[in-house]
């Protein structure tokens, strides 16, 4: 393939992946900055994984919202979440953040929550990517992208991390690696399926981990 055309080809794939990663990317917010903001401001109550399982939850009068449920996906609109983060919710520990956060920051952290924690919309590229990752990738790369040590004859699988993304594992390169036959010979994914997996991986693991690193927060195991 002609070098210039090859670069254009993978730039196009990267654009498709970026578009499919959800509201955060589509609205131009920095996902890593929004992840860091969530960890700094919200995770004390809602937990690092957005499931409400935090150290503070037992001391609160009302149970923190679990964003990982199907009920959260169907009942919480983006507009409602923005209003709650901005103005708070009476008679709960959820206080308004309009004094501490700008409108852009509020929208960014809401979009991060919706993309990183809430179940994807059924039939969406992210839903497809999550399903494929869980059935075909997690056994090697871990359910949270933590990787896997060598097991007998099975080669180790590296963790999925911001450091690897910065070192050249961009969206296009990730799609190319997923489609490479020797990566996982048993997989037979289309380019669209590989893009969906890459979008899910980058949104759920890389951007969240980048935010954790920015705040110095330890990883939840």
Task: Give the helix/strand layout.
Blueprint: H1 3-20, H2 23-26, H3 31-46, H4 70-75, H5 78-87, H6 103-116, H7 125-141, H8 162-166, H9 171-179, H10 191-215
Helix pairs in contact: 1-9, 1-10, 3-6, 3-10, 5-6, 7-10, 9-10
Question: Which terms summarize this structure?
Answer:
disordered N terminus; about 55% helix; single chain; 10 helices; Cytochrome Bc1 Complex, Chain D, domain 2; about 220 residues; mainly alpha; disordered C terminus
Structure, described:
The model is unreliable at 1-26 and 217-221 (pLDDT under 50). The N and C termini lie far apart (43 Å). Helix content is 56%, strand content 0%. The chain is mainly α and 221 residues long. The protein has ten helices and no strands. The longest helix is centred in the C-terminal third of the chain and has 25 residues, at 191-215. The protein has a domain at 126-213: Cytochrome c-like domain (Cytochrome Bc1 Complex, Chain D, domain 2), CATH 1.10.760.
